[in-house]
Amino acid sequence: MAQQFHGVMPYLVSPIADDGSVMDGVLARLCTHLIDQGMTGLVPLGSTGEFAYLNAAQKRRVIDVTIEAANKRVPVIAGVASSTIADAIEQVRYAEQAGADGILAVLEAYFPLNEAQIEAYFTAIARATSLPVVMYTNPNFQRADLSVASITRLAKIPNIVGLKDASTNTGRLLSIMNAVGDDIDIFAASAHIPAAVMLIGGKGWMAGPACVVPRASIELYQLCRAAKWPEAMALQRRLWRINELFARYSLAACIKAGLELQGFAVGNPLPPQSPLAAPARHEIAAALQSVGAL
């Protein structure tokens, strides 16, 4: 594919007002800030974007505002998540006509699915668009996961260019890399240690925490690219405290709280989720302060 993704691509939060409207100005300001800090792409409607809590109109508005704010300075990889192929294709076609540069494909399953059915979902998304597609699998939250064998088969589809795996299993990533070769690129999640994924051949990471530590995230990526591993691991150890906090509490609540502390009025996580309690907010503030992000 002509468009290749790399580097640090944050999962954006979705700022939603009490009346259900997308807070366009807040989201646009956040996008500009992240680009100015060196982010190499933006991903609206990832896990941190609370896609499971948004209606169709809200999702479309988040995509539109992100694309407009990015203004072709960095690629926008729009999240598409559904339990049905028909709805997923509708979302894909909207993102493409809106001007997205790629698709992040997520399967939301309710009833159990077999390998062939899971592969059919991702295949249908890829065939519905000319855009490059990155598959996203997160077995901690999804009933339907992609096996290494399925990933290997799907990697042969020309416009499936990447996989973001949030399994926490770095050994699984190496197995995938060995199986797919150069067919697709592998991206880390916040559940992985990004420097370790870069060491074994990853192309970068897509993760919510990069929203609140963009400068340090880019520094880490650059150290890894330069193979300055002792310096990279020293920074990674400092940043890992933030990943640990986000794993302990609700991810969207943590990142929205962190952004609020940094002056971005992104609002609360969407109900029935709850905002972070005061002690957790203090922990977030201390962690951000420790890496110069406050």
Task: Provide a compact summary of the structure.
The chain is an alpha/beta fold and 294 residues long. The protein has a single domain, classed as Aldolase class I (TIM Barrel, Alpha-Beta Barrel). It is built from eleven helices and seven strands.
List the helices and strands and how they pair.
Elements: E1 7-10, H1 24-36, H2 56-70, E2 77-82, H3 85-98, E3 102-107, H4 115-127, E4 133-137, H5 148-154, E5 160-165, H6 170-180, E6 185-188, H7 194-199, E7 204-207, H8 214-225, H9 229-248, H10 251-261, H11 278-290
Parallel strand pairs: 1-7, 2-3, 3-4, 4-5, 5-6, 6-7
Structural write-up:
The chain is of the alpha/beta class and 294 residues long. It has a single domain, classed as Alpha-Beta Barrel (TIM Barrel), CATH 3.20.20.70. It is built from eleven helices and seven strands. Strands 1-7-6-5-4-3-2 form a seven-stranded parallel beta sheet. The longest helix has 20 residues.
